[in-house]
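We emphasize that the prediction below concerns an isolated chain of 339 residues; any contacts that depend on oligomerization or on bound cofactors are therefore not represented. The input was used exactly as deposited, without trimming of termini.
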Amino acid sequence: MLDLNDIWLFVHVVRAGSFAAAGRKLSMPPNTISRRLQALEAGMGVRLLQRSTRQLNMTAAGREFFERCAPGLEDIEHASASLTESRGEPSGSLRVTAPVDFFDNFSIEWMHEFMSLYPKVQLEFVLSDGRADLIAEGIDLAFRGGVLPDSSLVARKLVESHRGLVASPRYLERHGTPRTLSDLIGHACLAASQAPQHTTWKLEGPEGPESVRVNPRLCVNTAQGQLRAARAGLGVALLPTMLASEDLRNGTLVHILPDYQRDAMGLYAVYVHRRQLPSAVSALIEFFADKLERGIADKGAQVCQEHLARELAAKETKALAERKQGVGERGRQREKVSA
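Result of the prediction step, given as a token string:
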């Protein structure tokens, strides 16, 4: 008869990636774990893991066994946690994955606030731009941006941010402010990839979809890198307003062509479908949702509207001054004629 404890060990070894890592997490000697998994394989009559000095890989049979066992063991672990939580506040360890620049975009101080609210919750953040296998890696929650493909995972949209054109006042003083979309052709632009010689920016304008083909002078493969380059006066960038909101508020960046924007990008909380989501996971999701809904992170749309309102007010003031000047000129002309 199979020992469920050995199956539990097998799942933890796969998630940890090695006997040593699993041993550290479970406070068990790696040799003991290896010996028990050998006994599990002998009892089943099949090899589950391919071992080498440098890495540990699942066999085809091991992968199938893991995919069948891991969800059931997770349900048992979370059922136990739920019973404990039902008698008190959210607790337990959460393994969270997010993009590498996650805490560049969202304040690390938020975690201090969350952990003060829920002192029995321990957080482990795995920052990576790769797509994590939530089940295989034991991930409780993933924060992901962009447009998500269809999948068996549950995704909740936390915030949505459009992309707009921004540049620093220093750059605009030296090179002038673009007045039309086609003006961007003559400007230094910042792009994400250097693969094509030219980059086409597709935006939604007052007359509908429009596009412009720009020749980027500098390419940086992260949004944070493009933000810093724009802030340093290196060119015009097409960035999420959420990312640039603080710079737009303090004036280190300004919107250009504010009535043009690109499709919205969303930030999602992603997790494996469960009948009952652990309360610690729910608490973290609701915490971020509340922060973002109250506009602490995304002031970009408001900033864009304020900037547009200032531009319109400036145009109206200029037009009024020109009309007054015209009236004054006509009055002086009439005085000359009558004289």
